[in-house]
Structures are given as C-alpha cells and as structure tokens.
Amino acid sequence: MSRHVRAAGALVAWVAALVASGCGGGGGGGDNAPPTAPPAISVNSATYGAGSPQRLAYDQLNAARLRCGFGLLAQSAPLDQAAAAHANYMSLNGELGHGEDPGKPGFTGATVLDRALAAGYAPRAVGEDLSGASGGSTAADAVRSLMAAPYHARSLLTGFLEVGLAWNAVASFDTLTAVLGVPASAQLQSPQGVATFPCAGTTDALARNANESPSPFPSNPDAQWGQPITVAGPESLRITSATITGPSGPVALLVTYGSGATADPNATFTDGWFSVIPEVLQPGTSYAVAIDYAVAGTPGSARFSFATGPR
C-alpha cells in the first residue's frame, strides 16, 4: 500500500510584490496580479526521455491542464535545474520540504525563488510542489495525488507557463519535485470563463487522499477526502450550489472553500478559486458533478462526469 506525503509551496510568488515588500509571499489575484493570456494549446516538445519519471509526470500534468482548459506548460531547462538541485538537497539531507539551510550539503537557495534565480531563471512568478510516496508509486501517480490535494491542485492549475521536474529518493520516499514559473516578460495564462478540475474526460481521479501540508482540515490530523473539484474563474465568481452524485446517490460534501462559501483556513481559495471537497469516493466509479454559479451576478452552470481510477 502506498503512503503519500505532500508539502505545499507558495502557490504563486509575485516577484514584483517580493521586491517591493522585501519579504516572501504567496497567493494570487488582487491588485498585484498581472494581466493574463488565453490558455496555451501548443508548446515546444519536451526533451524528457520516453518512459522517464519526468516524462510521465509532464504528460500527466499537461493532459489534465489541457483537457480542463488551464493551458499547457512548456518544459524549462533552468526550472529543471532548480528542481534537480532542490531534489538533490532533500536527498542528501533526508528531509522533504521547501526550505534549504545554507549550512547543509547541496544548498543552492533558501527559497524556490532563490533557487530559480540561481539557475538563471528570471521569473514574474514561481512556485514549487512536492510529493513523496512509498510503495512503488510512479511519477504519474504523484501528479494524480497532488491534483487530489486541494492546495497543490490550486498551485498546479495556476497560470504558470513553464515547468521543471525532478524525481529521486528522499529518505524512504520516491519524490517528485515540480518547479513552475512565468518568465518576467510574460503574462500568466488563464482559463476562458469558468474551468474545473476534474472535468469531462477525466478517468483517473483519486478516490481517496490525505496527508496534505498545509491541511485543508487543520483540526483533524487524520482527515481523508475524495477527489476535490477545483473551480477557477473571474474574481467575482461565486458558487451558489454544488453536488456530486455517484451510483448510490448524492455524495456528502465535507466543505466548499472560496469567497462567499466557507472561509479557507489557509486563505488560499479566494479571488475566483474554489475547492469542493467530498467524502472519500469509490475507486473505478463514475460521478456526475453539477455546479451552479454566478459571475458578476450573471448565473451560469457546469455539468460533467468524471471517473476515479482503479486505486
């Protein structure tokens, strides 16, 4: 049986805000958010070797982003370098996390921004996601697990343009390191209208997840949940109702985080981002989703089905 652990990085670090304030920060949207571009539907071919962990992770992530309207990510050699450097640091020191100590072996930068700059990447925005698992999970499984962890899904679906990936052993865990960025001269990409993950055509969602850091349920360290529905749209987006229905009827929703819904304890699901988190789902099962919403007061809806994978 696989055991997964995840450590969330800053979802988006706005470099302009970092320079202006002199301190680290996360989040997205608001007055600091730059203009956005339509989602990318083509990028240059990646050079990851066929069947390599990096290729498996890259293909899994891009297939999900393209299918659901969030736009493709291009491979970035400097971000690959930053990811590999931090993966090496974690492996040398046997610790999974986003920080680095300059007194420890393999140090290349205290933060993901520092490491991106050290690799020669000049970003407008940069983020990092980590997933460690024991039990023979693949790099594609690591992406599936991250996409079923609310804050990591939010990060991986943000309007980054490029990604760098590394895969190695950290203590007893096979670990995926993903560093995502937007070059300083570019705009973030953004869905057209309202987008969701999963969406129609998703057939390998995770039925059960747990162990996210930070936790979506801080008062319950043993919390488990099913595949969350991540919803993204304009800052004025408000969800008015959400249901998930399986073969046995309606699925209980643990919470919906977002503006106008339950306040996110980690202040991440705001500014047009929502997470609809159900109870644990069944593997190999199809679910129908119905979401009603309003954008600037104008009603809309999303109706689709997705399926969980076999495990």
Largest sheet: 6 strands, mixed
Distance between the termini: 10 Å
CATH topology of the largest domain: Pathogenesis-related Protein p14a
Unreliable spans are 8-33
Name the CATH superfamily classification of the largest domain.
CAP
How many whole angstroms does the radius of gyration measure? 18 Å
Shape: globular
The CATH architecture of the largest domain comes to 3-Layer(aba) Sandwich
What structural class do the secondary elements suggest?
alpha+beta
Helix-residue proportion: 10-25%
Mean pLDDT: 90
What is the top-level CATH class of the largest domain?
Answer: Alpha Beta
How much of the sequence lies in strands comes to 25-35%
What's the short version?
The longest helix is centred in the N-terminal third of the chain and has 17 residues, at 77-93.
Task: Describe what you observe in this structure.
The chain folds into two domains: 3-189, Pathogenesis-related Protein p14a, CATH 3.40.33; 195-307, Immunoglobulin-like (Sandwich), CATH 2.60.40. The protein starts with a strand and ends with a strand. Residues 8-33 have low confidence and may be disordered. The relative contact order is 0.16. It contains six helices and 18 strands. The chain has 311 residues and is of the alpha+beta class. Strands 1, 2, 4, 5, 6 and 7 form a six-stranded mixed β-sheet that branches.
